[in-house]
Automatic annotation (TrEMBL):
GO molecular function terms listed in the Swiss-Prot or TrEMBL record: ATP binding; protein serine/threonine kinase activity
Organism: Paramecium sonneborni
Gene Ontology CC, one term: nucleus
GO process terms (BP): cell differentiation; signal transduction
Name recorded for this polypeptide: Protein kinase domain-containing protein
Signal peptide boundaries: none
Ranges for region Disordered: 30-50
Regions of compositional bias (Polar residues) in chain numbering: 32-50
InterPro entries: GSK-3, Prot_kinase_dom
Amino acid sequence: MLQNKPSRSLSHHTKITDYMKKFIETNYKESIPSSMKQSRQNKQNKSIDKTSNVYKVELPNVQQNVCLKQRQYNKQEKERELLILKALQKYHHPCILELRHHFMNNNQTNMVFDFMPLNLAQVIQGYKSKNREIPLILIKSFAFQLLRAIIQLHECQICHRNIQPENILINDITFELKLADFSQAKFLFEGEESINNVNNVRYRAPELLLGALKYNNSIDLWAYGCIIYEMYTLNIAFEGNTQEEVMAEIIKILGVPKKHELLSMKSIFEDIKMPQIKKKEWEFNETIDFIKQFIKYTPNYRGKAKQYLNHSYFKDVLSGQIRLNGRELPNIKNFQPIELEILGLD
């Protein structure tokens, strides 16, 4: 992994925060200098989001890097993402990338975040290229931190709708994880219609693949299960470039969805003909058994994110005494009130 100094929180350093605002607004309000345009070509700094430009900004005279995201929005999109980011600011959740500052330039939104050196896709690829498995305790730590982020979102009635490895940021020194990119996030309420072409198709829940316009937060849990599988096997759970290809891969694992499952997914296709594919059997071990909780056709059978926080799968993480290569994994005692309540520690 790349060796970078861990980012420090700007929220606790008023002078740095004030300096950051002034520097960013002064230097980047009108245009990005050519040097910054060149840095955008660095794969590490370039966003997977094709509608955004994301830059690593080095603040002169301050040993602090920040991330500047520039994006063109229509009015509705702009208000929604900023509203969600501002709603999350008051929680200062350690597993969610927090908006530090924002300013507008014509129809362009400029958002400033703490800089994180890697994303989970790069971590997975790094282990895969070396033909090494990700240590199980690290998988559990990452899964636990990601779950904490999802719980906070769902408690706020926010569905992320774009949980994929590229949007999960990692500090490879501290092993801290932060969920990022709320460009597709939405305050989601039961029974309302929403677009279904959200998230990368490989992490898209089957109800979305089948055209459902009324869905719930459990689509995030489907993606969550896919990500744990990918960390565990170093392979994408449901590989494919089209909805049809991904659905075929899902059927290989779950079988052809039954009528009651199609109804539960609110599929718009009443008489859809499913490919007759021989179903594979799950292998059995602790991690696969946990993943199976989320890889289910019936959305409500995936449960609620908060019910898994004290799952036995995380007993090692919750012990608070875990280390990797001699280094402690992230402090898991910085719980939010809702998490303390779930764990019975309030």
